[in-house]
Amino acid sequence: MEFTQYVFYFFASVLVFAAFMVITIRNPVKAALFLVLAFFSAAGLWMLLEAEFLAIVLVLVYVGAVMVLFLFVVMMLDINLARLREGFGEYLPVGGIVAVLMVIEMALILSDGFGAGRMLVPHPADYSNTRELGRVLYTVYAYPFEIAGAILLTAIVAAISLTMRRRPNTKYQNPAEQVRVQSSERVRLVKMKSEKKV
Q1: 143 and 76 belong to one structural domain
Q2: Which residues neighbour 181 within 8 Å (Cβ) at sequence distance 6 or greater?
Q3: Which of 68, 87, 107, 170 has the most other CB atoms within 10 Å of its CB?
Q4: What angle do CA 21, 27, 31 make, to 5 degrees?
């Protein structure tokens, strides 16, 4: 085996371990940190496949922004872990069947006969995978890309509308009232007698 195969199996084993810990660990903060490890391992695999742009985007966007946001939200919320664990036994058989099917699919993909003749082709020196990704994304997959953008926009609007609810104990500012205020209402002069020395 070559050195790149050892590196691939190392990153793949770390990725499988991190993904297993994400779905089995009980502490949500630790699960988010294992998800960060899974993203880094996937980025390493993409670097081996000469997809440097996708690897950097995965690290910058998901690890640098999304997972930091997840960690802040998980640590700020008071999550009742007992309620989260109530339905674990009900969905365990379905999850087990899906996991077995995924393992079988990965074994078929990694077997010798399945991927014969599909090795990486060396590219010329001026090859840019970013340019190639943009060409394929905006020509061949233009409509699916636009549909995915519309779905994400709908999800953003739905998330904002679900979280924008009135809470009774929260103080709000009314910009219309702030604009209508007069100068006499902003400053109040209080006249007091000066203190006398004892």
Answers
A1: no
A2: none
A3: 68
A4: 40
